[in-house]
Amino acid sequence: MPDLPPDQSFPRLDSHPAEHELQHALHLFRQGNQGIPLSLTYARDTAGFPWSAQSLCAELNLALDKNHLRLQSGQAEDGATGPSYPASLVTLNIPMTWDLLPDAELHKSRHDFNTGLRVRISPTLVEGRPVPHGVLRVVGLHLKIPERLSTHPMLHGRFFTLLQRAQAFKLPVLVMGINDATDFHWMRSFPNLTFQGDLLSTRIGADSLELLLTMGGDRWRDFKVGGRAR
Questions:
Q1: pTM here?
Q2: Which superkingdom is the protein from (predicted)?
Q3: How far is the CA of 79 from the CAs of 8, 27, 73, 89, in angstroms?
Q4: Which of 74, 134, 181, 190 could form a disulfide with 64 if both were Cys (CB 3.0 to 4.6 A apart)?
């Protein structure tokens, strides 16, 4: 990570870890204009927390500036503002909360797959005027599969039900914790899934890569790290 400006090198002592991660990410990518999607986990106790764009902006020290999220830089002597990033490219993985998506089947899946919501802070208008903090929109689901899911038939039905509910809401699913090649290839046939895990992140040798692709059968050319199965 690059060195941070002096006025932003020391985050608030009471700030959430997600704020630290977001701060580093914005400083790393803000000048390159690569348009890289940022995804951060915001794990928080849902009890009593008002899930709204305003509350998230307050907790993560953010402000919505038109269609950009801007990191509040405090009172800088030179009047400089904090780094910003397109709001449409910043996704937060939060716990499942009934206030944002009241669906009983999805809430049941919390126990087997640690299912949560993927949300974005988006601009919105009320009576023709922009709302200062925007609105919190659910744009997908995230889940973490149990190890060796492909070998546990009893969990398959629950997994299928979860995907059906996601499809009913037209929500793409991010599957996290992909650490086993067999599980990965078992799930590649399902639509609207994006995969994330050590299996797809670590550097592997040519022999191991060839084996991984071979396990995909005749469709090995469709393999894309971080891509969606089709």
A1: 0.76
A2: Bacteria
A3: 13, 17, 10, 26
A4: 134
